[in-house]
Amino acid sequence: MHFSNEYQAAMAAVTKASLLCRRLQGDLIGQTMTKEDRSPVTLADYCSQMLICRELSMAFPDDEIIAEEHSQDLLEGTAPDLADRILEIAREYAGPSTDRNQVFQWIDHGRDVKSSRQWVLDPIDGTKGFLRGGQFAVALGLIIDGEVVLGVLGCPNLDYDDNHIGSVLGATKGSGAFEYCLDEPALFRSICVSKTMPGPELSFVEGVESGHSDHSTQDQIKKYSAQTAPSLFAWTPKQNMQWWQKAMPVSTYGYNPQKRRSIDKRYGTMRLVF
Q1: Which domains does the chain have, with CATH numbers?
Q2: Half-sphere exposure of 118 (CA within 13 A, CB side)
Q3: Catalytic-role residue among 15, 32, 98, 127
Q4: Which residue out of 15, 32, 42, 45 is catalytically annotated?
Q5: What is the per-residue pLDDT across 8-64, written as a single tens digit (0 to 9) for each?
Q6: What predicted TM-score, i.e. pTM, was given to this entire model?
Q7: What is the DSSP string of 23-52?
Q8: pLDDT attached to residue 35
Q9: 127 classed as catalytic
Q10: Which residues are 99's β-sheet partners?
């Protein structure tokens, strides 16, 4: 496998963070604050970033890390007890001698480094879904010389099968993509893009949050493609967790701008996921 050391480190870090986030999702009282941009951030966001950056700092200390959270926001936040809870959890993983400064260093690790190797991290993608008790993801990727070469996505509430909840998806350039059971990594399977061409029997995957989706434009595209199957909505409550399995394998294609001038004028040539 290409980038096997990086892949193993990323899988281990994301798996560890995903298990912790799933645990923390069950108890959200006092775990949330609001950042300057008015976006919510939770205890799990910081703990996930802390764990992953700590793992990367030990495996690849000279790599740059571009991550969403910053310890300065934590210091200036509206939840004064949050730092104490993060420290408490850090000591579970790094030992009782861990202090607050060390925790902040892990959260910010790689931020001031300039390197051709850049890890890009969203410790919780879908904070609103996390707060609702629904779907969210831990997302980590590696860029080398401007090219994405690796990606790992932890989905703690996504069904692996009828008997296991929680999946981790990973891929490296040139080596394919795989889905692993979060609780039993020995269970895994390869995943790929479907060879099925677009047609009315395929379903759109749409976002639930209006701020992330333009449903009226999507309706126009569905009408143009003669799609009749109902859409599948991503990041929905637990009863619809299996949208990913239903949507995978997926098929993508680009629209002809000559046929859809009104859409392309606003959005450019589009790639749609079914």
Answers
A1: 4-191 (3.30.540.10), 205-273 (no CATH)
A2: 14
A3: 127
A4: 45
A5: 999 999 999 999 999 999 776 556 777 666 667 889 999 999 999 999 999 999 999
A6: 0.77
A7: HHHT--TT-EEE-TTS-EEEHHHHHHHHHH
A8: 66
A9: yes
A10: none
